[in-house]
Amino acid sequence: MTPCDNYTGIGAPNDCAPERAASGQRSRNNRFSHLDTLFHPRSVAVVGASSGIRKWGYLILCNILAGGYTGAVYPINPKERNICGLPCFRSLRDIPGPLDLVLITTPAHTAPDVLKECTEKKVGGVVLISSGFSETDDRGRRLEGEIVDLCQEHELPLIGPNTMGIISTHSDLYATGAHARPRKGSIAFVSQSGNLGVQLMHWAMDQGIGISLFIGSGNEGSLNSTDLLEYLESDPATRTIIMYLEGIRDGRRFLQVARRVSREKPIIALNGGRTDSGKMAAASHTGSMAGSTRVFDAACRQAGVLLARKPSELLDLSMGFSSLPLTPGNRVGIVSLGGGWGVVTCDACREAGLEIPPLPEHIINKIDRHLPPFWSRANPVDLVGTLDMQAPIVAVEELIKSDRIDAVICLGIIGRKKLAQLQMDSTRRMNPDVTGRMIDDAMGAISNYEVKFAEHLLRLMEAYNKPIVGVSLAPTGEGSQFQLEGGKYSGVFFPTPESAVNVLAQMALRRQYLNRLGDTPAHN
Amino acid sequence: MTPCDNYTGIGAPNDCAPERAASGQRSRNNRFSHLDTLFHPRSVAVVGASSGIRKWGYLILCNILAGGYTGAVYPINPKERNICGLPCFRSLRDIPGPLDLVLITTPAHTAPDVLKECTEKKVGGVVLISSGFSETDDRGRRLEGEIVDLCQEHELPLIGPNTMGIISTHSDLYATGAHARPRKGSIAFVSQSGNLGVQLMHWAMDQGIGISLFIGSGNEGSLNSTDLLEYLESDPATRTIIMYLEGIRDGRRFLQVARRVSREKPIIALNGGRTDSGKMAAASHTGSMAGSTRVFDAACRQAGVLLARKPSELLDLSMGFSSLPLTPGNRVGIVSLGGGWGVVTCDACREAGLEIPPLPEHIINKIDRHLPPFWSRANPVDLVGTLDMQAPIVAVEELIKSDRIDAVICLGIIGRKKLAQLQMDSTRRMNPDVTGRMIDDAMGAISNYEVKFAEHLLRLMEAYNKPIVGVSLAPTGEGSQFQLEGGKYSGVFFPTPESAVNVLAQMALRRQYLNRLGDTPAHN
For an interface test with A, which of B162, B193, B195, B418 has the most A Cβ atoms less than 10 Å from its Cβ? Predict the structure, then answer.
């Protein structure tokens, strides 16, 4: 059912690994723990299931099936007999046995009747996909009020209305119209925009970023972002929380909850509607009216919430926080295959408030053995394009173990494979003296080296408990993460240095915050 | 020879099209026009050509051959007989007939002798790849002085030393060790970092960005960035110039030249070493000592140079400037498939100094016909996920033709194909009632629509001479540009809204600058 039940997580920011997936009781105490049934249901009904392949009632049903959900799935539509090979039911009442989760895609005006059926059936929770509520007009607002009252009266948990759905990877439940299926992981995402939310799920999938839950909270008629944050506080599969927010109704409670949750789990929020025009757009979008942005941003920071400035940062930062040890400070060592990238990374670090300390003499001497005499002999360590395979390994290790360095950014070592591939392709075409076998061997050696190097970075992170952020420059073609079976951390390889710098800058902020609290956090 | 010889360019920011590639005289008057022979040589020799597939002398030779260079190619190495199927020559003297370009990869100390041979042979230019000169130590500095004097005495144009090479797409010459081969285009790139430069050429290739010239200027012992800028001023194939700079020796002359060139061709520069640490890193990298960054940055702006803040921006901005009409002002209309992306794009625009004007009533009425009553009725136009294929077309057209809007950002229309593909894949697997034929037809319709929509954007840009910047959100899988045979402009589709906003913000700055000059530029 909930494969991460017995996942303790403490000290283990790495993603929830499949071997931890044995069943068991969720050991927690949370006033929203009844939402477990909604997010990890044994059975799902789709009201408004359709055979029209562009309809929501089709797309969600098809996604649930294609995503490999193993519980019972009931399409509800009185006018259809079969959809995707499943028999259709006329109504929820006709479903035999208990029912955990109901997804509703029928028009807004049908919602009250369907919800009544849900209460009769004593379902565990509802995701109301349909739009046409408070985001439209007065009638919609009244209708939303009506259904919210109904849910409250019957203690029926409701996500939405006007949502794109939910994803619960550890229950193999992909219940969105968009067919993005990111892998299982430890990042939970609460999004007040469905459109933006599912797009980020596509990016997460493409980048190999592991997700625990995605919740499009929609109009938040009933369950709101703060409730969901409280739920995630005790969700054992979730280690990092990202939020896209356009408006918080009870700011005080949100900040209170955020302050508590952020001590244990990093919260990264993107506040949409930071500007006059953005605020107006947000008002017409989710009907929310945000207050003063600066005040809210400042309050968020005081509550330990890290602020992203654009959607892609939500993913970059959450990947960093969920994969790497938290930096003990802001002193960065840089190892670069070439000078220019070292320079721009230096600039980016300094502009983000990070320090680039000078290299101690004994480190220079160690690295000296592997590089020609004209290497930089300074931080950043410019490897001057060396072909010495040992040089980057030694450089990173010497930096990360130094007590004058808190974190390392390593540029261009992982990712060379793709560049080498182009060179080998040319050789294959143009050089009759080199056999295909020789080329394959050379490529194999480069691939092997990259794996060994990444493994080495993971071992160093475990040994010294400091982050090493990779920058691949070229896309690795294998996502941005590198995982090792049973490892405590994952390797992270961003395509550009700015993302790596941003992760370390935000980590340093979080470290400062935790230090101010006087806490030594068990983990990130 | 130089396929873009008769490319007039005026009013045509679109990339140099192959049909313009008839030969002819370069009609220009420039004190660096003799560099044409270096950048568009009829014959090339590689001194230090090697059969060792990891050596520079091999990688460059192999790249020239694999890149489809059609001139004569001479490997020079007294110890080898054949490399890549080509006969080796003992020295430059042994080459029969004239020789235009010599690439030198042999150790630094051999350079004076090789250069003497070059002068005897009266070659058109030299690219000195080898390192070991002023970037290393006093001996290297003396050696560099020696060869620079020699070149000056014999008026031998020299790029480098310590460079990764050059790319001249319109002459099919890819003379770098990295085998990135971006397509022919109108963007020239002068990079003081070879490593950073060739990486950006890889990115340009991946994104389908068209390049005219790439010049790794290396230590700039002889020809420097300012000289190259002057050359590019009259290069008919170059419409936009990007530069990565770590230090300018004669700042006054650079600014003078930049001020003149930027009136006709946008110049976008990334200054590496903006911070204390970055400056130190740059000093150890290219041996250059930059002055005060703020002063230099301000002077650049006054000379009409646009400043990028990170390497990827060099490509984003140059793609925008080389593909789109220059915006007449800073008032942006936004069309978004969903609300959240509209909100974050609004925020990004406002934070970049762009305006989001309200929608005139008549535009609201026009769009009303295609959208459900609860659409935003405001700027941004939130298409509320409509399936009405006409809606985005109408919305973009109404905005771009309004005299209250200077530019349009269009989010999520192009790029849906990839998301639809995932949905169709699920249907193919899970739905026995839908045939493969039906799925292929549906995907065909979506693909067709995207092409028609992109074509429509191009027509609108021609008709109204205002930029429409696309944001695909999902990668299109076909690069970031969309071209139409014979079209004046190209479609640009960035993966994220920030890039689109940045292009418009920098365009607005350039427009302001040109307006202050009192000029009406012939083009961007």
Answer: B195
